[in-house]
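Cross-posting from the modeling subforum.

Setting up a comparison between two proteins and wanted a second pair of eyes on the formatting. Protein 1 (sequence, then structure tokens):
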Amino acid sequence: MPIGLKTLDSAFDRAGTASTREDWFFRLASICAFVVVAIFLFQEVVLRVAPSPSTTDEWLATPLSAIERVRMALMFSLFFFSLTTYAGVAFRLGDAAARLGLVFATIACVIELAYRAVEMRAVPAWAEAYRQAQDPALRDILRARVDAFQDVTASLYGVIRGAAFCTNLSFAAALRKSEGLARGIQLLFLVNAVRLSINYVKPLAPGLEPILDWMFILILAPLYACLGVWLWRSKDKA
């Protein structure tokens, strides 16, 4: 009997340790969700005060401001925080749809990280070298690099939006039987999927661009805030 009790106690101890580790991971994912909200809000303020370069001429005109460099660094780190949040959601839900959502989220975030790394490090260096160069041939080469970056980025965003669209639909499907806050999160995932799909018709209706810019913050900030609250709660309360 003592041996049996010891074995039973050990099983409970292992279960408690595993539960504690899960709680810590979900709390970490929750904190990452709130950090994403803060970065989104900071980005919106900076873009209103000092818009980031969007064309080759803007990149080559003047060096980046200090606040723009901070914004770029935060946007780079944002995708680590975002992916950790999605990992928390996938492990919390634990079904096939949630795992598929994490796969698509990983694809989108990895591409974003690669693009942001080039934007943050390489492009400013090319632009500065262009401004300092005296040789016209070298200036043409450096300008062509920035032009190529703009073209590649536009192409990559088609993949990123597609992967993000599938991410949102997958997590919405995983939350199909949810209630309370989780049901609200499901609706926000669906609304965000609609927002992403509208981007594909934007070339046919340029007037949609300012609307989509505002929809970005009005949907994603509440979505990540709700995810943060939901992940912080225990499984029973969630």
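Protein 2 (same layout):
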Amino acid sequence: MSKAKSRTAVQKSRPWWGYARNRNKVWLGLLGILAVVAIAGFFWLRSQDMGSLLEPEVGQETQAFELPDVVSGQAWSLNDYVGKKDIVIVSYMGWF
């Protein structure tokens, strides 16, 4: 019986941080807070006026550029088609 009493005395003398369960709770809490801040920051940045830089509006003038044709390898310029046809530019980049 003296061993049981001495164990409880030793366990009671351990600091709060000495228990792995308590350390895990703290680290998981900090990780959760960091995740919430990162998600909030992402949505805040998306809500700013970044869309005008990435997505031109209908009728907006763009700078001339050249792109290579994947099949033939020849370069084509946007200036070749201005005023001749309606132009639709599609940019597919996957996720964000």
